[in-house]
Amino acid sequence: MKNLFYLTIFSVLFSCNSTNQNKIKNIQIKLANLDESFSNLNSDKVGIAFRGYKENIELVRSCVDTLESSFAVRMNIYKGLKKTCPKFLNIFTLTKKNLESQILQIQSLKKDIDNDLIPLDSLNIYLDLEEENTQKISDNVLELMELYDFINSVNDSLYEPIKIYAETLCSKKEI
User: Fold this and answer.
1) What is the spatial distance between Cα 37 and Cα 40, in angstroms, rounded to a whole number?
2) pLDDT tens sequence across 24-59
3) Total domain count, the chain
4) Per the domain annotation, does 150 fall within a domain?
5) Residues in CB range of 41: below 8 A, 6 or more apart
6) pLDDT tens digits for 49-88?
7) How many CB atoms lie within 10 A of CB 88?
């Protein structure tokens, strides 16, 4: 009977430890995936799109007196870059720091668990907090990906047509 009691206690402790190791491993995998997705975002491309937007807006202001209906619709969509580019760059900077910190935090937590530095009754609290932090980073990366796709699609489809339209009107004014 005594052996059965020890076996039960050992099984419970081992399964808790195994579950905690699995949670840590899952968080690490999620962070690795987030890091890969994040590294696919090119903040320089967003900066270039924003500078192009500013140049085109100045060109439109100086050369375009009246807007055709179709051009006005395009301009309204194009003006979306005014808010999304700075928002992207701010979230990008913050998320980069948070992601790097979280990766280090999880590595440290894993070492602490491996060295039995965290009491078992507190471990789930730490793991839950780290899962919440990782989820917040995941939400930010998803938002960045959406903003990135919007910025690139708008810039790719409207930068040249708006520039050409405004330059054409500028050249007509000079004649």
Assistant:
1) 5
2) 999 999 999 999 999 999 999 999 999 999 999 999
3) 1
4) yes
5) 92, 144, 145, 148
6) 999 999 999 999 998 887 788 888 999 999 999 999 999 9
7) 24
Angle between helical axes of 81-114 and 120-174 (0-180°, round to 10): 160
Instruction: Round to whole Å and give the CA distance between 34 and 83.
Output: 25
Does some domain include residue 2? no
**Residue 2 burial class via C-beta count within 10 angstroms: exposed 0-12, middle 13-18, buried 19 and up:** exposed
Query: 165 with 71: CB under 8 angstroms?
Result: yes
The one-character DSSP state at 175 is -
pLDDT at 103 over 90: yes
Amino acid at 131: E
Domain assignment present for residue 36? The answer is no
Rounded CA separation 77/53 (Å): 12
Instruction: Give the pLDDT confidence score for residue 143 in this predicted structure.
Output: 97
CA pair distance 41, 45, nearest whole angstrom: 9
The structure tokens listed for 152 are 């690139």
Residue 115 DSSP symbol? T
70, 162 Cβ separation under 8 angstroms: no
Domain that holds residue 83: 44-174
